[in-house]
Amino acid sequence: MSQPQPHEIKTTVTSSLAGHPYQHDYAPQTTAATVLSDAMAAFGFTSDGTTRYYLFHDGHEVPPEATVGELAGHAKALHLGLRTETTNG
Amino acid sequence: MDLESNLRLADDVPAVEAFLASTAGRLHHREQDPDGLFWAEIQPSNSERAALVARIEWTVYPHRAPSLIFVESVGALTAGTPNALPGADGYRCGPNDVCKPFTAEGQQLHPEWGTGPHAWRSTGNPFLYVVENVQGDIDRVDGRRAG
C-alpha cells in the first residue's frame, strides 16, 4: 500500500512590480528554483542579463536548492517575495 | 506634481512604510516637503551599522524614475559626503548619484536605458520596487559606506 502524498503547501509569491500575487500549491520537495521560474513566468518577467531575480523569505535570500517544505517548516502556507538586483551603469 | 501622481503615490506609500518598518527603517514626508519628496531611512540588516538616508523625489508617478541621492540626515538639502552613500556598485561618490536603471540620474546618464530591459518599469508599486532594490544593495555590502 502506497504512502499518502504529503500535503501540498499553499505558496504565495509577491513582487513589487506586479499588481497581483502568484499563488500555487506545491509539493514540499519542490525547489525554490522551480517556484522562482514559475512565478517569473506568471508575472511575465524574463531573464535578460540585466536583472537578477531571486526569492526572499524571512529576511534572507532563498537559495535555489531550498525546498518549499524546508522554508514552510510546519506551516501549511508559505509567502515569498520576488526581489530584483539590477545592474549599474 | 499632477493629481494622478498624488493619488497613485497615496495608494503605494503605505506598502513602502510597512516594508521599511519591517527592516527597522522609516519613511518620512514632512509637512513642509513638496508633493513627491520623501526621505527613506534605510537600516542595514546588520543592525550594528547606522541607517542611511535616501532622498527620493518623484515628479510623475509612476511613469518616471525618481531622483535618488543619499544625504546626511532627513531634510538635508544637499548631497551628503561619501560617508552618506552605500559602498555598493553604482552608488557613486563623485557625483553622489545612484547610477541604476531605477533612478532619474541613471536614466539621464544612460539614454539607451530608455528602451529595452533597462527601461523604467511603472507596473505594480514602483516606489516599493525602488526601496527594495536599495535595501538589497545596501545589505549585500553589509551596510558598509562608500566613504
Order of helices and strands of chain A: EEHEEHE
Q: What is the assembly state of the chains in this entry?
A: heterodimer
Question: Which class do the helix and strand fractions of chain A yield?
Answer: alpha+beta
Q: How many strands in all of chain A?
A: 5
CATH architecture of chain A: Roll
Measured by DSSP, the beta-strand proportion of chain A falls in 25-35%
Q: β content of chain B, as a range?
A: 15-25%
Number of domains of chain A: 1
Largest sheet of chain A: 5 strands, mixed
Description:
The complex is a heterodimer of chains A (89) and B (147). Chain A is of the alpha+beta class and 89 residues long. Chain A has a single domain, classed as Ubiquitin-like (UB roll) (Roll), CATH 3.10.20. Helix content of chain A is 19%, strand content 35%. Chain A is built from two helices and five strands, in the order ββαββαβ. In chain A, strands 2-1-5-3-4 form a five-stranded mixed sheet. In chain A, strand 3 and strand 4 form a beta hairpin. In chain B, 28% of the residues lie in helices and 16% in strands. Chain B contains three helices and six strands. In chain B, the strands form two sheets. Chain B has a four-stranded antiparallel sheet with strand order 1-2-3-4, covered by helices on one side. A two-stranded antiparallel sheet of chain B has the order 5-6. Chain B is globular and about 40 Å long. At the A-B interface, strand 5 of A face helix 3 of B.
